[in-house]
Amino acid sequence: MRLDVISLTPEAFAPLQGLGVIGRAFAAGIAELYCHNPRDYALDRYRKVDDEPYGGGAGMVLKPEPIYAAFEAIPITEKRRVLLMSPQGQPLRQDDLKRWASSYDQMVFLCGHYEGFDERIRPLADEEISIGDFVLTGGELPAMVIINGVVRLLKGTVGTAACLEEESHSSLLLEHPHYTRPSTFRGQEVPEVLRSGDHGAIARWRAEQQKERTRERRPDLYARWIEDGEGPVLLKRSQP
Predict the structure, then answer these.
(1) Nearest-5° angle of CA 33, CA 60, CA 112?
(2) C or N: which end of the chain has fewer Cβ atoms within 10 Å?
(3) Which three-class secondary structure state does DSSP give residue 238?
(4) Is the Cβ–Cβ distance between 213 and 201 less than 8 Å?
């Protein structure tokens, strides 16, 4: 997958190249990352990319000309999706990451700065995405979150594909608890069922833990899980 980022601070993305399995995915050619600085496409000798907002107000606004020029210089592949990082966007969900990873071979990220984008930049994007109800200094961190989430789903990034199927949010429910050796640690015991060798009982215990943990910690997700009729599906998967 080709990943193109339009950002005033392209150096912020350098750590991704050496970040564990994500870094190895880039090294293996599973994904390729390209950063484009709008300043390189500014129209004046001062490389100006922002200006005062019409109508007055605090802060500066990103100008459309450098963003459009940077965007139009990016090679286009057949299956491309353009995302604008914005606190006004739709909340990011795991299903979005799955959809992008499976349906596109190129993703372009528009990262804002200052007070925001000139409104005429928004039509470049297919989707506006937010990673939460808060405001950051720029769109770089949200873009890195999405890049991490998408690249880890690409074939070949994670050694065992099953690891991606039984994790939090893969079926709206949160993941069940995990334990490893030792069986006793500071008075805390590993549940006996996990040491029983009874795979059917273990599956049922994990399914129940998923439901209970989600109901307690994320009642909003639990309600969606019930509404979507996922309950019978999970129970069927947990049968021995």
Answers:
(1) 20
(2) C
(3) coil
(4) no
How many domains, the chain?
2
238 confidence band (pLDDT: 50, 70, 90): very low
Environment class of 212 (CB within 10 Å of its CB; exposed 0-12, middle 13-18, buried 19+): middle
Kindly report the CATH number assigned to the domain that includes residue 42: 3.40.1280.10
> Burial, 168: exposed, middle or buried (Cβ in 10 Å; 0-12, 13-18, 19+)?
middle
Least confident of 25-29, 142-146, 212-216, 225-229: 225-229
- CATH number at 223 reads 1.10.1270.20
pLDDT in tens, 40-93: 999 888 899 999 999 998 899 999 999 999 999 999 999 999 999 999 999 999
pTM of full prediction above 0.90:
no
Whole-number Å distance between alpha carbons of 70 and 176 = 45
The answer to whether residue 158 is domain-embedded is no
